[in-house]
Amino acid sequence: xxxxxxxxxxxxxxxxxxxxxxxxxxxxxxxxxxxxxxxxxxxxxxxxxxxxxxxxxxxxxxxxxxxxxxxxxxxxxxxxxxxxxxxxxxxxxxxxxxxxxxxxxxxxxxxxxxxxxxxxxxxxxxxxxxxxxxxxxxxxxxxxxxxxxxxxxxxxxxxxxxxxxxxxxxxxxxxxxxxxxxxxxxxxxxxxxxxxxxxxxxxxxxxxxxxxxxxxxxxxxxxxxxxxxxxxxxxxxxxxxxxxxxxxxxxxxxxxxxxxxxxxxxxxxxxxxxxxxxxxxxxxxxxxxxxxxxxxxxxxxxxxxxxxxxxxxxxxxxxxxxxxxxxxxxxxxxxxxxxxxxxxxxxxxxxxxxxxxxxxxxxxxxxxxxxxxxxxxxxxxxxxxxxxxxxxxxxxxxxxxxxxxxxxxxxxxxxxxxxxxxxxxxxxxxxxxxxxxxxxxxxxxxxxxxxxxxxxxxxxxxxxxxxxxxxxxx
Length: 474
Known about the structure:
Distance between the termini: 14 Å
Strand order of the largest sheet: 7-6-12-13-14-11-15
Number of strands: 16
Organism: Halopolyspora algeriensis
Protein name: Phytoene dehydrogenase-like protein
CATH topology of the domain at 3-78 and 212-281 and 415-473: FAD/NAD(P)-binding domain
CATH superfamily of the domain at 3-78 and 212-281 and 415-473: FAD/NAD(P)-binding domain
Pfam family, one: NAD_binding_8
Number of helices: 19
Largest sheet: 7 strands, mixed
CATH class of the domain at 3-78 and 212-281 and 415-473: Alpha Beta
InterPro entries: FAD/NAD-bd_sf (IPR036188)
Structural class: alpha/beta
């Protein structure tokens, strides 16, 4: 029987492990922490009985993932739950842009911009239905299965988000798109900055923005259950510092950032690939603030009170300015803040009338200050009186995030800047970006295509690369 070692038990490491185990490999996963999951851990961070996701929280790409959808994960405890409203984007006027259901449903609430929203996203959402997600979630250099739909997406995705936003006239529509586009964690005036916003909006229109019942840890818990069922094993508390520490294996999968992979592989790594790995650019950071809020957040806009995800940042111009500042190393006065109210879809995360509210702000990479006040100011801006409802809070700085998960160097939770080059070719320019140049060793982290998010496609794609390599060698 062939054997494989997987270093790291985040969603991508487990995805690679499951893919290989289902092909008959004897798989061992090595995890440095005491618990599996990487960014998909869940726990009581504030008060007993109130469950918070440590990092990942809402999963439009998880629900859309061709890999995750192909697996019997429900049998191992994964259940998706949907809020009444997917996304709300409040403005100072008290109005909000609202993403809900189909493009037509969303368009009905966007006034004069509704027809333009529908004209853009109906064909893209239709492409998601027809399977174009699989093409988008693979390396750029491949023969597409759905070339027409992929071309339609690509022609828009290469545009800066700021250019695409000119399609709309109202602050509600422009702000709604800005909030989703800002998940790229990159200046919205740069080329290809539309790509993430288009992808997440299109898949959201098709699959919604769900949460996992009980917390994001249910996703990796289900993957671990499937791996165990297929004969694989997981060892926690095992930190790998050198390739020499690993037992012999036909395949080694590294769910690690490129620089860490280069450290472990040492002189085995070809010089040109080492240069690419060490030059790999990291993204701006997250500064995380978890709240236990009695009675929930008193949003001024009613749609925000029913939305699983709320984006705080104001107009498109304000968000673009904040993202530009964070990218340039300046702390924005009013940072873009992502908020998740998972308890609306999953009430079991609350304790009585005390509810978990998840949030983080985009801040400069390695930011050493305290952004708590700036985050709470953004809450208060759109939900006056929220401070009086906070029962407890848990704050994690960029250094705290890195300490908890070394993959999050400098607080970068998406494992790499989404520059035009790195969005298209990460972690290096290559036909097969998962190969490290060391025989039998493959990179499977979010530093490989298609990038950040809990979808498992980086691990799945890397495992398929390993399988192709073995077939060729034999």
